[in-house]
Amino acid sequence: MYRNYFYIDRVEIVLYQKPRDIVRSTEGKLLFRDLKPYLQIFGYFSVVDRDNWSGEMYKYRDNIPEKYDDRPVYGIGMEDNPDADTLPPKRLVIVLSENEKEES
User: Are the C-beta atoms of residues 71 and 96 closer than 8 Å to each other?
Assistant: First the structure.
């Protein structure tokens, strides 16, 4: 079991009465470059490619390479960490794609 630090397996969402002035780099879609500054600095992130379902794991936000910056965000969630014996039990999953998300 992972016991090196205190870890809470949930996503924390902070709400404000007044909207924050978050500038998107493009209209109508959220690119990873727009989301990245709002991720916690440390947290075991799994970045998944929606087009082929491959993924890469990063321990720190700043380790996530710029190659993802122009990709649209498909979704964000938490999942069980398959390496829970040596890592935290949950990890944040960010699903990105080369293609824009089609609205249904």
Answer: yes
Using one digit for the tens of pLDDT, what is the confidence trace for 2-29?
444 444 555 566 667 776 666 777 777 8
pTM for the model stands at 0.71
Number of domains in the chain: 1
Q: Indicate the SS3 state at residue 60.
A: strand
Residue at 4 is within a domain: no
Position 77 in a domain: yes
Residue 18 lies inside a defined structural domain of this protein: no
Distance, CA of 95 to CA of 88 (rounded, Å): 20
Cβ atoms of 81 and 44 within 8 Å: the answer is yes
Tell me the Ramachandran region of residue 3: left when phi exceeds 0, alpha when psi lies from -120 to 50, beta otherwise. alpha
